[in-house]
Amino acid sequence: MLFFTNPNCADISNMTVLPKTVWIYWQQGEDKAPEIVQRCIASWRMRNPGWSVRVLDAGSVQYPTGLSHEWFTNRPDISLQFLSDIIRVALLSRHGGVWADASVYCSQPLDDWLPQRMPSGFFAFAGIRRGRIIGSPFMAAEQGNIIPSRLLSKLLEMFQDRRFTGNRTWYGQILRATLKPPLEITPNTTRLWFSRFFTDVLKIYPYFTLHYMFNKLALEDSEFADAWSRTPALPSSSFVKIKHNKNLPAIPDDIRQLITTDKFPVHKFNWQADMSSPYWKEVFQLLDA
Questions:
Q1: What is the pLDDT of residues 123-178, one digit of tens each?
Q2: Neighbouring residues of 124: CB distance < 8 A, sequence distance ≥ 6
Q3: Which domain holds residue 234?
């Protein structure tokens, strides 16, 4: 059966025109990626023959994003993780299409389920933690969609005239780890990260800056909030279920059912997974079958 049957999204006239490009980024290049990443990339090509799968690396990522050279060379305060966040919203805002983390596996063709999930012109899975409205490993948008465009604008504005030197200090790292639990109680409390006390005095930003800025816009920008409210909610629990069970010696029945019966269309893995372990060997045997 198709996991995403939804009578409210079945009207083809409400479907968005989604550019058929899958964007993936691996800084060192696809040929130097670990095996699990290469197999994830291969899954997008195999199941989406009518799509262009573009794997960007450090040498090819700047031009399609439209970001300035400084973002990639002269900002030691910008972590690789946050740079990846900026890259994904820039690509979706400028070109549209699908963003997939390099460790996201495609188990169903995109054309079979994604367009009907995008009446707002945008799609992302719901956040897995209480203080995060969305999950970011898989996102899709029509070109120029309000959600990635305004998200990009706010993130660029935040970093344009600031240098977050506190993030590279020991006290900054301790503060971020200490403050994350109490400030992630609700989407509303995560907005405190963008107060001047954090950005201009402590000069720190959180690991989940993209997610918290999304929260801020969803709470303060009515047009942004309306677009997100028209995006069908889809929890990410099944999306990360295989990854979160990675330490088991063998696949339990619920994981086997998720792969073989429910057929969840995408799965988030860990790029550091041990592909020689019995667990991951069986996972890929079932996925490839």
A1: 999 887 788 999 999 999 999 999 999 999 999 999 999 999 999 999 999 999 99
A2: 134, 135, 136, 138, 139, 140, 231
A3: 18-165+214-288
Q: Structurally, how many domains does the chain consist of? A: 1
Helix then strand then coil, % of the chain, to nearest 5: 50, 10, 40
- CATH code for the domain in which residue 252 is found: 3.90.550
170 lies in a domain? no
Q: Note whether 136 and 88 are within 8 A (CB).
A: yes
Task: Note if the pTM is more than 0.85.
Answer: yes
* Closest by Cα among 281, 269, 206, 258 to 1: 258
Among the listed residues 133, 128, 147, 140, the one whose alpha carbon sits nearest the alpha carbon of residue 211: 133
Where are any strands of DSSP class E within the chain?
Answer: 21-25, 52-56, 97-100, 104-106, 122-126, 134-141, 266-268
Q: Is-contact 256 185, C-beta < 8 A?
A: no
* Cα 167 to Cα 163: distance, rounded to the nearest angstrom: 9
Q: Where are the alpha helices (DSSP H) in 54-195?
A: 62-65, 70-73, 80-94, 146-160, 170-183, 187-190
Q: Can you give the C-alpha Rg of the chain in angstroms?
A: 19
In a 10 Å sphere around its CB, with 0-12 CB exposed, 13-18 middle and 19+ buried, how is residue 100 labelled?
buried
**For 145, which DSSP code?**
-
Residue 5 in domain: no
Q: Residue 26 has what pLDDT?
A: 97
